[in-house]
Amino acid sequence: MRAKGHLSLGRLAVAVAAALSVWLAAGAVCLLFGQVRVTPAQVVNGMLGRASDPLHANILLMERTPRVLLALVVGGGLALTGAVFQALLRNPLATPHTLGVSAGGALGAAAAIALSLPGLNVGPFTPVQFYALLGALLNVGIIYALARRRVYSPLKLLLAGVTLGLICSALIMFVRFVADPHKLVAVDRWLMGGLDVHGYRSLAAVLPLLLPALLVLLMQANAMNQLSLGEEMAAGRGVDVARAQREAFLAGSVLTAGVVSVAGPIGFVGLIVPHVLRGLFGPDHRLLLPLCFFGGGAFLAVADTVARSTFAPSELPVGVLTAMLGGPFFLVLLMTRMR
Amino acid sequence: MSEALLSARDCCFSYGEGAFGLAGVSLDVGAGEVLGIVGPNGSGKSTLLRLMAGLLRPSSGGVRMGGAEVGSLSRRALARRVAFLPQQAEASFRFRVCEVVAMGRFPHLGTFGFLGARDVEIVDRAMQETACSALADRDFSTLSGGEKQRVLIAAILAQEPRAMLLDEPTAALDIHHRSDVLDLLWRLSRKQIGVVVVTHDLNAAGQFCDRLVLLADGRVARAGGPADVLEAQLLSEVYGAEARVFPNPVTGTPLVIVPGEAAHDAG
Fold first, then answer.
1. Does A6 contact B85 at a Cβ distance shorter than 8 Å?
2. Is the pLDDT of residue B264 over 70?
3. Most exposed among A15, B132, B212, B260, judged by the fewest C-beta atoms under 10 Å?
4. Could you give the residue ranges of the DSSP H alpha helices within B130-159?
5. Closest listed residue to residue A93, CA positions, set A280, A268, A223
6. In the CATH scheme, what is the code of domain A9-336?
């Protein structure tokens, strides 16, 4: 599917418009499905506030729409960050969770739930979301401090991130050990990752972190291409390597922190989506990053819709589904396409 | 040689205590010449090249490019004048050859690096000059070592630099591709590009370089024409192994032979 010749602005615009359409279409279709099926006419009427059935209107406006919107931006952010981290760390296995940011978020959330930390309502964040954000940002700070050191190298950063994740996992086990057993169910539920939201509060919480981070990451797309051929090569071409890496790490980590605080550690989107899209459309990050955002968003919205429809009346957390279906799918892909 | 294009003056550099570095190295590169930097492992060849490329800053002394201090130029401004090719360049993703060559245009383009009509022309010409045009739509990572090196040279050619600095460009190549790449660099130098090559291959250096700089322990042991630098006694001292020099029967350039123990036994 890769076009020949050089990427022009026109071709990029066409590709992005097509991806945007898929993203919007996936979102629209997802509004129709769930425990209660609705027709497109009911969706339009519901949006215009003319629904005949107030229950339907409530489900549509306060449950389904915010949830689908959240999936569209969260999935997009995770996939795009995954693509950037794979380029920065020069490691195809890198994901938004590789640097331990999500583990920090999980620790924050687990501590908040299990130890009944004081309920702070900060802005649109719920107390648990706020503690998750705090934990994730703490790890961002540690990673950022390491990345600023002159001895920084992708390998060291990777090792530091993995170690940070392991430390947080151990601390989560400690929290579980000392916690009231009745609260462990809620901790487990959070760790599965999901988009179980009501109203637009989570969306309002995540967007102020996600949108600026996306912008920073997209601005680095061309530098990411250069870095794919090595840091010295990029520096010789005029890339300010240290700055590009710093900005991309920070933006990707802040984005992940925001996403994890509202949706928990949803896995596999940040791994599979970049790999599939890179295989189909090539590695040019100027094209790949926008495609990852729209593709990842569409993927997560559909996955979440399947998760909440199939197991009705209970809802399967989407993080469980993405890992259960995404893992085997990725293995097949590895064995057949990427020799 | 006319006025120097790129010149290092009394450059010192240290990686830290006990590590290899440079202790006051000066050299000039002129437009239209191939300068070879040779010397034993750890003599400071690659360090010198990185100082000249602006990737490392000298602790004292300086590097000037066309009248401007290299350290005072922005990375992009410097990249429009000086191109650098590191020893091992591998792409982490499956970029196509034309994409890799187009990446050389980076310092001339805007934030997102879209090529204008003139840039496309320059990229095409760079691929023609290096005989890569037929590879344009191939996956870079599947190319042979010789092809990869030609593509990477096409990329630094597309960068339109006045000087090219290459770190062991032929180290991984067989004899055919090695002479291919060196011939190519020699041809490019005749277009008024200053070419600096770090190499371990003294015979190739003697054959393809206009001038040589022999480094030993971070200092210039000798600089001059191949015949002046590739001298048996000097090489024996610097490398710590008995070296003999004969005229190459084909080219007449110096041919360095290190007999070693095995040769003595056989003789």
1. no
2. no
3. B260
4. 145-158
5. A268
6. 1.10.3470.10
How many angstroms separate the CA atoms of B119 and B129, rounded? 15
Here the tokens at position B67 are 């009248």
- The answer to whether B95 contacts A4, with C-beta atoms less than 8 Å apart, is no
> Which residues sit opposite B65 in a β-bridge?
B6, B68
Distance from the B117 Cα atom to the nearest Cα atom in chain A, whole angstroms: 11
- Reported as a single tens digit per residue, the pLDDT across B56-87 is 999 999 999 988 899 899 999 999 999 999 98
Smallest Cβ–Cβ distance between B92 and the set A90, A232, A237 belongs to A90
A286:B80 CB<8 A: no
User: Coil, strand, or helix at residue A39?
Assistant: coil
Nearest to B93 among A236, A237, A278 (CB): A278
pLDDT per residue, tens digit, chain A (339 aa), is 577 778 889 999 999 999 999 999 999 999 988 877 888 887 777 777 776 777 777 888 888 999 999 999 999 999 999 999 999 988 888 899 888 999 999 999 999 988 877 877 777 888 889 999 999 999 989 888 877 775 567 788 888 899 999 999 999 999 999 988 888 988 988 888 888 888 898 999 899 999 999 999 999 999 999 999 999 999 999 999 988 988 998 899 999 999 999 998 898 899 999 999 998 999 999 999 999 999 999 999 999 999 888 877 788 889 888 888 778 877 887 787 654
B74, B99, B159: which to substitute to probe chain A, counting the most A Cβ within 10 Å?
A: B99
CA of A174, closest CA in chain B: separation in Å?
39
Q: Does B112 touch chain A (CB under 8 A)?
A: yes
- Flag whether residue A6 sits within 8 Å of chain B, measured between CB atoms: yes
Q: Which domains does chain B have, with CATH numbers?
A: 4-81+161-266 (3.40.50.300), 94-160 (no CATH)
Asked if the Cβ–Cβ distance from A2 to B79 is below 8 Å, we say no
Question: Which residues partner with B34 through β-bridges?
Answer: B195
Please indicate whether, in this complex, the C-beta atoms of B99 and A284 are within 8 angstroms of each other: yes
> Crossing angle of helices A65-88/A201-219, nearest 10°?
30
* Contact between residue B105 and residue B158 where contact means Cβ atoms under 8 Å apart: yes
Residues of chain B neighbouring A216 (CB-CB closer than 8 A): none
Identify the residue among B78, B103, B118 best suited for mutation to test binding to A, counting A beta carbons within 10 A and taking the highest. B103
Q: What's the CA angle centered on A239, arms A235 and A241, to 5 degrees? A: 70
At residue A49, the pLDDT reads 73
Kindly tell me the burial class for residue B120, based on how many C-beta atoms sit within 10 Å of its own C-beta (0-12, 13-18, 19 or more). Answer: middle
Of B78, B79, B93, the CB nearest to A228: B93
Break chain A into its structural domains and give their ranges: 9-336
- Residue B25, burial from CB neighbour count under 10 angstroms (0-12, 13-18, 19+): buried
Mean pLDDT over B163-179 rounds to: 90
